[in-house]
Amino acid sequence: MTIFTGTTNGRVSFWHADMGGPPQPRAPLSGDVTVDVAIVGGGYTGLWTALYLNRLDPALRIAVIEKRFCGYGASGRNGGWLSGGFEWSRDKYIAAGGTREGVIAMQAAMAGSVDEVIARAAEEDIDADILRCDKLMVATCAAQLERRDADLAELAAWDFPASRLTTLDGAGLASRLRVAGGVGGLAVSGSARVQPAKLVRGLARAVERRGVALYEGTTVTGLAPGMVTTDRGTVRAGAVIRATEGFTPSLPGLRREWLPLNSAIIATAPLSPAQWREIGWEGHEIVADYAHAYFYAQRTREGRIAFGGRGIPYRFGSALDRDGQTQAGTIRILHATLMRLFPSLAGIGIDHAWCGTLGVPRDWCTSVGFDPATRMGWAGGYVGLGVSTSNVAGRTLADLVLGRQSDLVTLPWVNHKVRPWEPEPLRWGAVNALYGLYRLSDRIEAKGGGTSILARIGDRIAGH
């Protein structure tokens, strides 16, 4: 289904289309096997874990089990932000037993993932259109400027390097990106833009070259200590890692573990040189705004704008999309937001639209963990920061599985656990109420009001 002539809706994502279309899956599991480590999920988390385990111990027998193909999920559908960001509640980690020093160390580890991903991509000969750039946060009203200032105050309070921050007024923002109604912003150095499907498919080839077995087209039907059961056979393993992020609720017994939040993206036709001159963006920054129902965007390798946002945030019963197809109303919302911000692009074609899911824990805080008694581990709940965070997760899981006493295994997200989401219809009501209040708050604030209390009410409803 399309709402614009020539717009492809779904078929996983534009990023795969940019590579000639989704790949043919590798061979599935063909019977029972025994390995040292079984990893469920062929996205960034699973593949980074496999890569670092192999680097630390090349003799390990490692198997990655993937239902569709590596990169089918969020790893091949996201906005391509290698940001190294930290957007979870620092206070919640401390309340769960962490320390201030540990949270600051975790913040630094996330920031360091940008250099680490770039280094490993170069080492493994992965061309993923990686371009170092700033992250540019945009404010288009007074209330959003208030949130920018609050953001600055929090970063200072947690010892974030001031040298990485550039506060922008309206003119400063316009010198980088001409956004209609832009009144200021914040530039944060140390990020990068990537083509996400190129990165995940390159990682899959890299671990395969290293001898890791990749079983695609294989559906996991159960997880237990020392065992992964599938529709193609049983994998017995010394350690089992769950790396399924937003697809976790589809596994038996995990329906309420993490909530699969929907995010959707449109990709424009390539802009002309005149159109780029009109809006700027010469620094190729990854861009978002301070709205409650925010957008995120990148300028792609071939001169498109990939522009994302929430759309319809959650499907009842933790249901998933069909090969990335998104709702017509979501495409209209994203297109309207893009035109509001960049009115000079009126008439630009929308070549592709798609959606994916990101994993959200009940407290909206990411975690990585491993139980040495059962030898079972997990990572995820990235809440939209998976491109960089998954790399830290992979390194941490490798150390946990091998019993290495590294700095990573002491960070406060390790073995951080929260209660499950409520049963339906409570979680459907909470999440949709949250984003309904967010959108209403944005409309109120855009008319000149201060920060809306409705957004805070929504946060309390959903535990955000």
TrEMBL record:
<protein>
    <recommendedName>
        <fullName>FAD dependent oxidoreductase domain-containing protein</fullName>
    </recommendedName>
</protein>
<dbReference type="InterPro" id="IPR036188">
    <property type="entry name" value="FAD/NAD-bd_sf"/>
</dbReference>
<dbReference type="GO" id="GO:0016491">
    <property type="term" value="F:oxidoreductase activity"/>
</dbReference>
<keyword id="KW-0560">Oxidoreductase</keyword>
<dbReference type="Pfam" id="PF01266">
    <property type="entry name" value="DAO"/>
</dbReference>
<dbReference type="GO" id="GO:0005737">
    <property type="term" value="C:cytoplasm"/>
</dbReference>
<dbReference type="InterPro" id="IPR006076">
    <property type="entry name" value="FAD-dep_OxRdtase"/>
</dbReference>
<feature type="domain" description="FAD dependent oxidoreductase">
    <location>
        <begin position="36"/>
        <end position="400"/>
    </location>
</feature>
